Amino acid sequence: MKLLRLFGTAAPLFAIALLSPAARAQYTHTIRSNLFVLDLTPPPVALSLPALQQPLPGASVTVDATPTGATGPYIYQWYFNGAPIPAAQGGAAAAFTIQGNAVNNGFWRVVVGSAAGNIEATFEVQVPGTTAPRFELAIAAFDRASGMLELSFPAAYGRSYSVQRSVDLVSWSTVESGIAGTGAAIVRRYDFSSQPRTFFRAVQAP
């Protein structure tokens, strides 16, 4: 950015160069005794979101986190109950859609980054008539003939899960890890034909 003095006029004039119209609009200026004074302090960036979102069961709500007071590009990072959401980290999409089911009840946070710095906002999601489900493993299907077991458990956005097995409820081995929560129930199929007496459990990462 620089100032260019323009001659051939009744009073000295200055023009802002090397700034786009959108960028020039961010700054204020005044004329003092024929002197063009440019304030290069960017205006404050603001991000205001409703404190409570209440999508109806089975419906959804889209939260738009576009800030005011700065020009893009913006980078958005979304969190659920303190954990980052892997699919919504460092992207350019300002809108995020949250499904209206109980596993999404909780506290959400979005951090927006730009050349002017970072700003964040938090809000709560509460689906009417629901409470956060208990985290427990359930048998969705069972086939003794084929030795296949289908398990399901509620998985929140931003959380990571693993499924473990044991034959004595003392020593546990990991069957699958790094299962990303999607805000809905996770369903997994496992073969227990080689060990008919097997216990399974789902573990949520800290």
What does this structure look like?
The protein has 206 residues and is mainly β. The protein folds into 3 domains: 2-39, no CATH class; 52-125, Immunoglobulin-like (Sandwich); 138-204. The protein is built from 1 helix and 17 strands. It has one helix spanning 21-24; strands at 2-6, 13-17, 28-32, 35-39, 52-53, 60-64, 75-80, 83-91, 95-99, 106-114, 117-125, 138-143, 148-154, 160-166, 173-180, 185-191, 199-204. The strands form 6 sheets. The protein has a 5-stranded mixed sheet, with no helix packed on it. The protein has a 3-stranded antiparallel sheet with strand order 12-13-16, with no helix packed on it. It has a 3-stranded antiparallel sheet with strand order 15-14-17, with no helix packed on it. Mean pLDDT is 76; it is low at 1-20 and 22-31.
